[in-house]
Amino acid sequence: xxxxxxxxxxxxxxxxxxxxxxxxxxxxxxxxxxxxxxxxxxxxxxxxxxxxxxxxxxxxxxxxxxxxxxxxxxxxxxxxxxxxxxxxxxxxxxxxxxxxxxxxxxxxxxxxxxxxxxxxxxxxxxxxxxxxxxxxxxxxxxxxxxxxxxxxxxxxxxxxxxxxxxxxxxxxxxxxxxxxxxxxxxxxxxxxxxxxxxxxxxxxxxxxxxxxxxxxxxxxxxxxxxxxxxxxxxxxxxxxxxxxxxxxxxxxxxxxxxxxxxxxxxxxxxxxxxxxxxxxxxxxxxxxxxxxxxxxxxxxxxxxxxxxxxxxxxxxxxxxxxxxxxxxxxxxxxxxxxxxxxxxxxxxxxxxxxxxxxxxxxxxxxxxxxxxxxxxxxxxxxxxxxxxxxxxxxxxxxxxxxxxxxxxxxxxxxxxxxxxxxxxxxxxxxxxxxxxxxxxxxxxxxxxxxxxxxxxxxxxxxxxxxxxxxxxxxxxxxxxxxxxxxxxxxxxx
Length: 493
Description:
Blueprint: H1 18-33, E1 39-40, H2 41-48, H3 56-68, E2 72-77, E3 80-85, H4 87-100, H5 103-125, H6 130-139, H7 141-153, H8 158-167, H9 169-174, H10 178-191, H11 197-212, H12 216-233, H13 236-252, H14 256-273, H15 278-293, H16 297-314, H17 317-333, H18 337-354, H19 357-371, H20 376-390, H21 401-418, H22 420-431, H23 435-442, H24 449-452
Antiparallel strand pairs: 1-3, 2-3
């Protein structure tokens, strides 16, 4: 590469165009902050514009010039135009960033832009644009990760990082990046220890993530601190969210009566506030699965139907997908495997659309439970597929005793019907599927998983590269672990 890749322009025989020079100065930082992914025009404007000499509207013209010179590539995806720096220019951008001396300032602009974007996405996520914003945050993952990394390593920025990581709770919990969320939240909470609203929100977010990984002991410690902190600073919103997550953690811990108390208090506070949130709405299917374990199928069904009505009213499929899963569990508990499978597949389609890794795994698990009586080979493959997904999350089925016991019972039943060798072949067949292949098989789009299997397993699009590997032993044994007696019993007809 000879010289700087943008040719300057002259105006009226005068000096170099000042705007072009400013963009040249800013370009190395733009190139650096998007080295791992593409970016949109909003990012270019936020990072490069100084609102004085280089205005936001100028940036479009200059970006188009870079596309014309084949320095940036352009791609239209899902109604949004994104740009990507071509590889030969990346190292040049890094070098110019280092030489400019303005890296910290412009990285901070980049961080501020993505903090704003995350908070906007969180606000829009509880509403009819949930799927669209889910896709937007997925597309911006590399840039969000870079913003979080800046907050983590730059002195004095940890509290801002907590705010960003907390705003992204829906990405960690419902967007397939459980292990990565735990990584950022653990490290940022360790650095920003002063009492604050940002810390309170990060605490319940991290507790939710930890519970999904089956790590309830630290989750409960974080929730104790969160509730106390929220009360001390008078933050009703974070307190209500903390109560919701506390109910979920106690549910997974198999302390169902305490879970009910927390969840009902959270819903009472929602009612008093007169406005639900994405967190409080999903408390209904959590409460439903809790009362189902206590033997109240009718209340469980009513809570799920209430959640589905709110899904339709607010346009929020994520909470509704969990209601569908619990309705499937109700149907399975009542001995209706066909209806359970129908609910589980409907849930799985939504989970796939939202890239909810935990939801995909547990939907496939319910399909396996429902299939075992009629098609043991399919059940074995589904159990293998579920096992693959849990490796990317943490402890299978959250380590939740009733669900783990049901998994083991389904495995034993399928093994008894098929024989150990045939079961192992079918299980490994499912275990070798990619995420998308597993979903296709579970949805009945292909009834022979062997046709789908390849030798290069790739994760689902939302899988984090920061993963928690679970071994077969992590399925646990309720007897050896001292778990209480299992109450999730299926009706026999």
